[in-house]
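COMPLEX REQUEST
Ligand: FE2/S2 (inorganic) cluster
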Amino acid sequence: MSGVAASTSFILNGEPVPGSVSSARRLLDVLRDDLGLKGTKEGCGVGECGSCAVLIDGEAALSCLVLAGEVEGRAVTTIEATADDRVEAMRRAFIEEGALQCGFCTSGMILVASRIPAGAGEEEIRAALVGNACRCSGYASIVRAIRRAHAAEGSPRGVETGDTVSVGRDVPMIGSDARVTGREQYPHDLAPPDGCLHAATVRAPVACARITSIDFARALATPGVVRVLTADDVPGTNRFGLAEPDQPVLADGWIRGASDVVALVVARDRESARAGAAAVELTLERVTPVWDPARALDETAPPVQRDRPSVDGRHPNLLAERTIARGDVEAAFDTAHAVVEATYRTGHVEHAFLATEAGLAVPSPDGTLRLHVSTQWPEADLRQAAAALGEPYEALSIVQETIGGAFGGREDISLQILLFLAARACEAPVRMVWDRAESIRGHGKRHPVTLHHRLASDAEGRFLGATADVLIDAGCYASTSRQLLDNALAQIFGPYDIGSVRAAGRAVLTNNPYACAFRGFGVNQVTFAMEQQVNRLAAALGIEPVDLRLRNLPEGPRVLATGCDIAGQGGLTRTIARAVEEAGEPPNPSSGDGLVFGRGVASAMKNCGFGFGFDDAATAEVELTGSGAIVRVGAADVGQGIETVLTQIAATALHLELEAVVVEWTDSRTCPEAGSTSASRQTMAAGNAVLEACRQLLEGGGEEDRDRPRSVRCTWRFPATTALDRGRGRPLAAFGWATAVADVAVDTRSGDVRVLRLVNAIDAGRAINPLLLRGQVEGGAVMGQGYALLEQVPLVEGLPARCGLETCAVPTAVDAVPDIRTVVIEEPEEIGPFGARGVGEATMIAVVPAITAAIHAACGVWIDEIPATPERVLAALADARG
Ligand code: FES
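STATUS: Structure written out below.
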């Protein structure tokens, strides 16, 4: 850089930087790599997420956009600073308000928040945070924390010393102190003392092609490069996949989608690895792609996976097909008083967890490999890695580093097998960090769904019949799309009583990004359609939407319209009543200046646990140490706070103070398998396993026996479930229940929709930790708002276009609904620990149809394709005008 000295120095957290650092390096890299201050995070590298925020001369700035030379002689404050009162006040307030979950955004958020002037109003606070993305919290708790810090009041949360009943209390998340001081260690922060090699992937410039050659001579000649690995170097099956092994570790002949990796370059530093990757020359032959799932269903469509036999001998891309039929549905429609019919569409959505994929694989002297990474399901990763690489399962292990958000997107493998492969090939520690663009390209997306729906009722609104035809775009690999199809179909008509139904669903392969688990697992899409149908029918019949729901919701154990035997509907009807009550008076319909207002309501059910005959279990070991207890259970804490919840369960069960219990969950060698942190299952699965182990430890002994060191290991299983056998049996064991009420303002001139108020009522069974529960409910609500109004992944020929958080339209603090109200119902779940049920997913599902119903109430149009962008709203208004 002209005019800038080659080296520079500045004041860092009140002290001069020892020595000098390169002027031309990003301040972020200097802080993290040269000075070892890892509290400053990189979430995007292009100024979109705010995770790297620091203070420069007291003003917030993004260290990814600042060169070190630009801070010559100036004062830089990072999250590690200990002498800034405003930062310290904000730290305490964030903890007290539960304003941190995964914590990856927290350091940047706290530093920016610390400079918001006291007395700032809601809008001013949100405007100041607009550059700081948080995917977990929904921002409401962050705003409360800032107000709390400004008010310098509020009583500390937690459990009193001597209290041995922590279940039901507002316990701040374990690890909060480390998160607010920058000490928490994510996989990106690992720096082995003796150094390590670095890996970079080679990806094709297209999403569909045949590979005719890979020339890596120039890559090997690149300074610093030590190995280039291709499919020929993979010693096992070279295949992985969560439900079936159809994804190559390294592409062997074909490119089928965005996530495919062609080669892996290992070098002495990250820059050399990337330079080497860029030097690999691919010769590709274009083959006919298939982007449209309807076209993919043709018998003549080009096969996405040429080595996959057709499931029916005719359709090359049909992955799964299911039909549920009960009663005489056509007769029901013939006799109906009212019928509503529509086609619903949803698109690809990005998980956008703030911490991109990163990891470090380390060979041990005993020949085993240890991987430091973030994952939702370590043992599933290990099983896939062992088969793909031809390694014994016991030769591989995982150490969970702090997980910077997941939302389903870390259930599938990303870079785990690549790192094991590289470390084995080089017999050296190998590290890899994906940037935001690679993260968006490298993991799956929410399933796009097209769904044609008919619903019939009598004159009083009692549902007589319903049909649904569902087409799911699974993308280029199977992942869990078969399972998602089952899950969606089992819950496709919601909790309602409907005499006759038919639902037909197909999941089809295309060359689009593979679709995978994402908070809600298929229930979001079908609930959007069903609840919109219910609201449509209510409008057609002139019946209040709430009344129509209650008319079709019988209490007690029964068989759902889809044939699923359920034990009851928890507190669903109470969530409806309480949500409406909490929402208060609806907004006035029109302000007269192009703005119109409306209110919508919708309900949701969501399974807890996998179901469909899967042996769904968790194992926990509890050891009494004499002074307390150690709980070992491999349940991944993805920021939702399961570590804290399990600590509370164990402490309460053992009549111990919270501080006397330690939960260990990170090491696959020592922590028993608890299964995936997904399907809203861990509070119930791991929670019950821990509770049962505690009970067994106390059984037969008195209070004093608690001090005798010993341990017990227990496995807890969800009740047995059945396959989705054309709509009979009990495919799902338990459910969460929710109702949302949304108030919106629609600008009929621009098509812009603002959510003004969102009430999210959840039946949690028992709120083990109300503070953390509220964070889940608010975070899910804003994720639902984003899904309804903003979020989609633009694709250009199967590749995500301009891969960034802004491109994917992840909600900012300004987008997020300002008035969000959480209502918690506690209708005990029979099989839940202390009556608790999982709610992580139910929090977002009802929000989407509540918002689209509110849009209809405001301006009279039904939006059947989400997100409800201004363009779609304007088009619907134009259609309505004729
Ligand atoms: Fe903000 Fe996870 S806590 S991104």
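REMARKS: The chain has a mean pLDDT of 95. The longest helix spans residues 770-789.
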